[in-house]
Amino acid sequence: MLQSIVEFFRSTITEQVAGNPFWFIIGFTGQVVFGGRFILQWIASEYKKRSYVPVAFWYISLAGSLILLAYSIHRKDLVFMLGLSLNTLIYVRNLHLIYKHAGKSAPGEPAGSAG
Asked: Cα 87–44–34 angle (5° rounding)?
């Protein structure tokens, strides 16, 4: 069973890389960027010793979502196109709210922080 799983991944990766390396790199980059936002949030929270979502989290989310949206459009995958479109709107809205309320944060609390 393990060998068949390994073979599945090997053949899928080989097929996608050989078939269209440019779009494979785009999709893989999108996944790395999108996943990196959680590492950023984890590091920021560890540094602050509390749950904390830095503004950069939303920018990285937006960038990763846009890259993956382009990839899903190329692949003509409606499920991911719809999901990533909604994500993109949410990230833009969060950034809008952060900057709309900049300077209105509580004393001692940086603008745009959450948690």
From this structure: 30
Provide the whole-model pTM. Answer: 0.77
Q: What is the pLDDT of residue 108?
A: 47
Which stretches does DSSP call E strand in 7-96?
A: none
Q: Show the tokens assigned to 30.
A: 């999108």
Q: Do residues 67 and 29 lie in contact, with contact meaning Cβ atoms separated by under 8 Å?
A: yes
Domain boundaries, the chain: 28-100
Q: Which residues contact 114 (CB under 8 A, 6 or more apart)?
A: 52, 53
Question: Measured between alpha carbons, how far is residue 49 from residues 12, 57, 88 in Å?
Answer: 41, 17, 29
